[in-house]
Design goal:
- By secondary structure, this protein is mostly helical.
- It has a domain at about 1-45.
- The protein has 1 helix and no strands.
- It has one helix at about 15-40.
- The two termini are about 45 Å apart.
Length: about 60
């Protein structure tokens, strides 16, 4: 958000450039942590969820 309404309570924010930098660093950190988790075997493919079949009317049964 580039502006805040005058009648709004006091809020704190960071500049758009700083926000972009923070998000860029968090994304990089997220990729690094994911890579470590993959190496540790935490993201192995397990059982896939079974898809529900629709009945004759084309609707999925819930129960």
């Amino acid at each position: 958000m580039d502006y805040l309404p005058e009648n709004d309570c006091v809020r704190y924010t960071i500049s758009p450039d700083a926000r972009k930098e923070v998000l860029k660093r968090l994304l990089k950190l997220n990729h690094e942590i994911h890579e470590q988790e993959v190496k540790a075997g935490l993201h192995t493919k397990g059982k896939s969820k079974k898809k529900q079949k629709a009945d004759a009317s084309g609707q999925i049964k819930l129960f």
